[in-house]
Specification:
GO terms for molecular function: monooxygenase activity. By secondary structure, the chain is mainly β. The protein is 13% helix and 45% strand. The protein has a seven-stranded antiparallel beta sheet with strand order 3-2-6-9-10-5-4. A four-stranded antiparallel beta sheet has the order 1-11-12-13, with no helix packed on it. The chain has a two-stranded antiparallel sheet with strand order 7-8. The chain is globular, with a radius of gyration of 17 Å. The two termini are 34 Å apart.
C-alpha cells in the first residue's frame, strides 16, 4: 500500500548495518559446505546457498573472503552441500566457528573420491567447482551437481532475523 503511515521510511543511504537488518527479514536455510582437505575433513556453515540451473543441475554458494576453510575446499575442486535439519542447530554453530576439530563426535560418511556427508541432513549435493566470482566481501561459487539425496521426512533448519527457527515453530537463541 502506498502512503501507509505505518510503513518504514525509505533509507537513501544504505549502511552495512541497515543492509544486514533488511536482509535478515529474508528467511534462509542453513548448510554446511564440506570437503576433504590435505589434513582431513573441513567445512563451514553457509546460509548463502541456492539453485542456479536445473538443466544442467548447478548451485551457487557464497563464501566470505576471510574464510580460512575455503582455500582447502577450492583446492579439493569439489564439495558437499549438507542442508541442515531442524535438530542440527548445534552443528550449524560448530561449523560456523573458526578452528578446532569440527568433526569430533559428528556422524558423517564419505564415499571414495567424494566429500563428507553429515548424518541426519535434510539433503546433500555433491558438487564440482566450475567458477568463482568476485562479489565484494564474498566470493560466489558456481558448481555442477554430481550426485544428491534427500530425506523428505526431515524439516529444515532456518535462519530469520538473527535467530534459528524451523517451519511452524520458533527456536531459542541467536547464532
Amino acid at each position: 500500500m502506498h502512503g501507509d503511515s505505518t510503513s518504514i521510511a525509505v533509507q537513501d543511504h544504505v549502511t552495512s548495518d541497515s543492509f544486514r537488518s533488511a536482509v535478515g527479514s529474508f528467511c534462509t536455510g542453513l548448510t554446511v559446505i564440506s570437503a576433504i582437505g590435505p589434513k582431513g575433513p573441513v567445512g563451514f556453515t553457509c546460509q548463502a546457498f541456492s539453485s542456479l540451473s536445473l538443466d544442467p543441475p548447478r548451485v551457487l554458494v557464497s563464501v566470505g573472503r576471510t574464510s580460512t576453510t575455503w582455500p582447502h575446499i577450492k583446492a579439493a575442486g569439489r564439495f558437499c552441500v549438507n542442508v541442515l535439519a531442524a535438530d542440527q542447530m548445534a552443528l550449524s554453530r560448530r561449523f560456523a566457528r573458526p578452528g578446532g576439530d569440527k568433526y569430533a563426535g559428528v556422524g558423517w560418511s564419505c564415499p571414495p573420491g567424494g566429500s563428507p556427508r553429515l548424518d541426519g541432513a535434510c539433503s546433500w549435493f555433491e558438487c564440482a567447482i566450475e567458477a568463482e566470482f568476485d562479489a565484494g566481501d564474498h566470493l560466489v561459487v558456481a558448481a555442477r551437481v554430481l550426485a544428491l539425496d534427500t530425506d523428505a521426512d526431515r524439516k529444515p533448519l532456518l535462519y530469520h532475523r538473527g535467530r534459528y527457527t524451523s517451519p511452524g515453530e520458533s527456536m531459542p537463541g541467536p547464532a
